[in-house]
Write a structure and sequence with these properties.
This protein has 126 residues and is an alpha/beta fold. It has four helices and five strands. It is 24% helix and 15% strand.
Length: 126
């Protein structure tokens, strides 16, 4: 699959995601250690922070479902599945929340790989 980045003139930056992205991956607002199903903090910056790291003040967009449809992209710290039948049963987490998105996702490492890819692509363009 592919991750992408594009600039439109000097005022618009766009990240291209190969699936359906959870909004907090793009704009921030990850669940904390106390509120995530896995009791972990996210160890990555969200996408918006990556593409504005150089002080950019223009428009930033994220286009999902680009090139491929690899499924839902869920933050790593809240990627919860059943250890018995992860792709079939939708067991609730410790808060009673269902996690359907994980059953149709490429896996728990997808979010981190995508965020790292965007960071690498952005650095290469600078």
């Amino acid at each position: 699959s592919e991750a992408g980045y594009m600039e439109l003139g000097k005022s618009v930056r766009v990240l291209l995601a190969p699936g359906e992205l959870a909004p907090e991956i793009a704009m921030g607002g990850f669940l904390t250690k106390e509120t995530s199903s896995l009791r972990k903090n996210m160890d990555k910056n969200h996408a918006y922070k990556t593409i504005t790291a150089d002080g950019f003040k223009g428009k930033c967009l994220v286009f999902g479902l680009m090139n491929d449809e690899i499924g839902y992209i869920v933050p790593t710290n809240d990627f919860y599945t059943s250890y018995l039948l992860p792709s079939i049963l939708n067991f609730p987490d410790r808060f009673g929340n269902g996690h359907y998105e994980e059953t149709v996702s490429a896996g728990p490492k997808t979010c981190g790989i995508l965020l790292d890819s965007w960071k690498d692509i952005f650095k290469a363009t600078r």
